[in-house]
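To whoever picks this up:

The parser on our side crashed when reading a file containing two proteins. I've narrowed it down to the boundary between the first structure block and the second sequence. Both blocks are reproduced below exactly, byte for byte. First block:
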Amino acid sequence: MKKLMIFGCLTAATLFACTNTDKPKEPVSSDTMTVTEKIPEPITKDTSKVYDFVALDSQPSFPGGTHGFYEYLRTNLKYPPMAIKNNTEGKVYVSFVVETDGSLSDIKIDRKLGAGTDEEAVRVLKKSPKWIPGKYKGEVVRTKFNIPISFTLTDKKA
């Protein structure tokens, strides 16, 4: 008799535990359908967050990699006349954000060289083809990127 009573209690407990209390007792009707379950809330992601490129699983890259980027700079960078006249050489340090679609935004000069080189570095980056965006935990994310752009005169007078 005790075994039957325990079995009956376990059966009742199992039925009670398996009952879904999230469903409404009566369906809610509309003109086109009957809703009997709750619709889950959409997951919202913070798409405005900008990640530092060193913290990523996969860093942003120029199509063709580093070699492709420097080839792009070599063919598109125009040495400013004032920089040629003043014999200005060196590096312009720039930062920018690689957006989730690969476009570049928020282009800034972090360390200037002057004589028109800073403006030329910004011009070339604005004209850049889309990059391959960075990834964090498998998701494409906005990424801050920093690079130096070198200006070197090749035809020096001896």
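<<boundary where parser fails>>
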Amino acid sequence: MYPSDQAQKLVIRLPDDVKVFIAEQAKRNGSSQNSEVIRAIRNRMERVAGAQSSGR
């Protein structure tokens, strides 16, 4: 990861159930909620890239 002062900032609104899920995952993984959101987005990016490369 890189310093947060070099990262782009984005404010988002989350449904309560999504916020609770992110908080629970962060606690379970010993990470920040921000890290959990980034992990989820990166996982999605990998799935999309894999689907595109396989011609789906």
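After patching the parser it read the second block fine. The two ends are 31 Å apart (CA to CA). Residues 13-53 form one domain.
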